[in-house]
Specification:
The chain is mainly alpha-helical and about 500 residues long. Helix content is about 75%, strand content about 0%. It has 19 helices and 2 strands. The chain has a two-stranded antiparallel sheet with strand order 1-2. It is found in: Cell membrane.
Length: about 500
């Protein structure tokens, strides 16, 4: 009996895989609509005055960011946790009725929160805080969802057979603890209905912080939401999926630990770079800049460790489109984590702040690193979860090149647009007057906004190909996992 292979239960993982695909499509579709609205504002009038209120930029923008961050990315994190956690800890969810119930409750409550978010944001109900737009009833539900996620993590760890914790588990634990702390402190708010004796909407609230303090807490949260949502859990994924897919051991376990603790310490202090040249104390701005530059070390430590894992096996990158996604994703991670610290240097930030260069920086990281890695993880999981071979590796390869072109068009157009903006805003004539009006910069940027829209559209087309490939994989002929390993170089 002891030699029988463990039967993992992927029920909850499958559920979150489906929301990853669905919410990824919704978030990216809205993003493409927004990109073309910026390039061609008249698009919004096509829908008529009745719908224009709900489809304008200001109403759709928080839906785009939240769908990608709290929809696509979080679903991907949850899906991979319920897959990786079982395999690395050598324990099945099916062994514990309690943990299985927690996992299912986690999913369904999460889905209810998603519906509440979509309805409230479309209705214009928002706190107007970046990445923290939800009002207090939804915030409470989010906390419950997060507690359930934590219970699944520590519950599986508690009944594990594998006593040592692989580095990926460390990163998942850090994701849970980091976001829990950030979300609770940033969303401290007072419901105005109760504070004002029942006057106003019952769901409305005001922040417990004000002015400069509010900005400080908000960007401590905002920057570190990127750290613990877009960086830490994605590193957890690649430390598992790249070695499994390539058959190579992680290049350096010591480097993975060093990078882990470096990220944990340094990232938390870098949020001040969002508030350069503001009313925040100058020493705090300087600290944000310094820690941002130092952040290059642990970030590149992780990325280099991933790339060196493929040392001597680079032919696999040419042979496997799935490994292409992960290797290029790691490269984009290096790229983005060098670009961010450069933008945090005060002299550079004087040009970059409020420009589209910042938008380009965010998207080369999210599209090239987060998006590529989550899709690669689901491609690896799908044959093992559904016990079916990937429907089409040719379609996967085509998707890779289409999306890579899309990312390159996106960030290069935004780089050029951003630096152009920054230089035009600062330009003066011989009398000391501004050389350009604001509308001059808008006119100059039009072609770059169009290119950005095309780049986003290409990425969306690639994502539709990904969704179709996953769907066809689910409905293909069922095979045993041993067959999957021998079917192609993609099994491992």
């Amino acid at each position: 009996m002891e030699n029988r292979p463990l039967e993992y239960d992927y029920t909850v993982a499958k559920m979150f895989m489906l929301t990853t695909v669905l919410l990824g499509f919704v978030g990216m579709l809205i993003g493409v609509i927004l990109a073309f609205e910026l390039a061609f504002p008249s698009i919004n009038t096509i829908l008529g005055s009745g719908l224009a209120e709900y489809t304008n930029f200001s109403r759709l923008r928080p839906l785009h960011t939240d769908a990608v961050i709290f929809g696509f990315t979080l679903s991907g994190i949850f899906a991979t946790w319920y897959y990786v956690g079982q395999r690395v800890l050598k324990v099945s969810m099916g062994e514990s009725k309690f943990l299985m119930a927690i996992g299912k409750l986690h999913f369904w409550l999460y889905l209810l929160v998603v519906v509440a978010v979509v309805v409230s944001l479309f209705a214009g109900v928002t706190t107007s805080k970046e990445y923290a737009e939800f009002e207090w009833p939804i915030d409470i539900a989010v906390v419950v969802v997060w507690v359930l996620f934590g219970m699944s993590i520590f519950g599986l760890i508690g009944i594990r057979r594998e006593k040592s914790l692989y580095i990926s588990i460390w990163y998942y634990i850090a994701t849970f603890l980091g976001i829990a702390m950030l979300y609770l402190f940033n969303n401290m708010e007072v419901p105005t209905y109760f504070a004002s004796g029942g006057i106003g909407a019952w769901y409305h609230s005001v922040s417990m912080y004000a002015g400069t303090n509010d900005a400080l807490v908000q960007w401590w949260y905002g920057h570190n939401a990127v750290a613990f949502g877009f960086t830490v859990p994605i590193v957890a994924m690649i430390y598992y999926f790249l070695p499994k897919e390539s058959g190579q051991a992680v290049y350096s376990y010591k480097l993975s630990l060093l990078s882990f603790w470096g990220l944990m310490f340094v990232y938390l202090w870098a949020g001040g770079h969002h508030l350069l040249y503001s009313t925040v104390p100058d020493w705090m701005q300087t600290m944000g800049s310094i820690f941002s530059v130092v952040l290059i070390l642990p970030s590149w430590g992780s990325a280099i460790n991933m790339l060196l894992t493929m040392k001597g096996e680079w032919q696999q990158v040419a042979a496997s489109p799935l490994i292409k996604f992960m290797v290029l994703g790691s490269t984009f991670y290096m790229f983005s984590t060098l670009e961010g610290p450069i933008q945090a240097i005060k002299s550079v930030n004087a040009i970059a702040h409020f420009t589209d260069w910042i938008v380009g920086h965010v998207h080369d990281g999210v599209l090239g690193w987060v998006g590529f890695m989550i899709m690669a993880a689901l491609y690896h999981m799908a044959p093992r979860v559904f016990k079916r071979e990937i429907y089409s590796k040719k379609l996967m390869a085509a998707q890779f090149w289409i999306q890579t072109l899309g990312v390159v068009l996106y960030f290069t157009s935004m780089w050029i647009a951003g630096i152009t903006q920054g230089m035009m805003w600062r330009a003066h004539d011989q009398f000391g007057n501004l050389a350009y009006s604001f509308i001059d910069t808008v006119t100059v940027l039009h072609p770059y906004y169009t290119i950005r829209g095309v780049g986003g559209l290409l990425y969306l087309i690639g994502f539709v190909m990904f969704a179709y490939n996953i769907y066809k994989t689910m409905s293909a002929r069922q095979v045993e996992e041993t067959e999957l390993k021998n079917a192609s170089p993609m099994g491992a």
